[in-house]
Amino acid sequence: MKKIFLTIFSIILVFSLAACSQKSSTKEEKVLKLGVVPSSNSEKLVDDLEPFAKALGEKLGVKVEVFTASSYIGVIEGIGSGSVDFGIVPPFSAVLSNKQSNTKNLLVGKSLNGKPGYHAEIFVRKDSNIKSLEDLKGKKVAFVDPSSASGYVYPGAMLKDAGIDLNKDIKYQFSGGHDKSIQLLLNKDVDAIASYENVIKKYTKEFPTLKEDVRGLAKSELIPGVTVVVSNNVDEQLKSKIKQALLEIQKEKETLGILTNLFNITGFEEPDDNTYKTVEKISEKMNIDLKKVK
Q1: Where is the signal peptide (predicted)?
Q2: Could you report the per-residue pLDDT of 219-267, keeping only the tens digit for each?
Q3: Are 225 and 95 in contact (CB under 8 A)?
């Protein structure tokens, strides 16, 4: 009887230890959260980035999960709190996270023109009689998000330079995505939209008549490129690994192509902190307190 009891006890002990071991290994499994702003349909954006996240995870030796939120600031807050480890974000979002959470800019993306930057652009319909920024007085304008460099901050400054008071001279709304702004313009719900220079090329498949129906009205000065920002909670060794993995990925045509298609990124280079000071100057013009944006 004693032998039977010992045998049963041993079996239970083995299974218990195995279960504990399995739980322990599950707990220890490292997952890195990659944050991206909802510049277009959020669910599709996450799905489209999955192959990139998988390739990056293989290089890092950990699982990489893609995260987005309902607004740009939601992603920035995630990076600041450490619930999101790093992000591929627009320059204004990068500056916000730098100011509010002491994050670090790891790399800056090179645009389709080969430069570490791009231009914001204001678009109108081709059948519109709007010929200049001044003609937008009394019109309806769609911006993307209050924390979007090309979708609000820079175009807003352009309108102010043209003598337009954003709160008095136009009626504006935030669409929540560049694709949503395009839809508003094509539907004639607004007279103009603010976006980035290559947005027509980017969304031609989704909106087949885009090239025929929409034209650019005015471009901004050069904006720093899409930036890789890392949380202050990530240790230096992991920061270095993420940076190296992304530099390796830029040599892989298929994987890099995902970033080119989604963010117009054709490669990476070291960020020049001085270029981000232009974002701060434009923010001042727009009366934006970078430390208080929520």
Answers
A1: 1-21
A2: 999 999 999 999 999 999 999 999 999 999 999 999 999 999 999 999 9
A3: no
Return all residues near 183 (Cβ < 8 A) that are at least 6 apart. Answer: 175, 207
- Residues of the chain by 3-state class (helix, strand, coil), percent to 5: 45, 20, 30
267: β partners: 110
* Range with the poorest average pLDDT among 36-40, 66-70, 129-133, 248-252: 36-40
Q: What are phi and psi of 63, to 5 degrees?
A: -80, 135
Backbone angles phi, psi at 108, to 5 degrees: -120, 140
pTM: 0.77
pLDDT category at 113 given cuts 50, 70, 90 is confident
135 secondary structure, DSSP code? G
- Where are the alpha helices (H) located in 84-227, listed in sequence order? 91-101, 154-161, 178-186, 199-202, 210-213
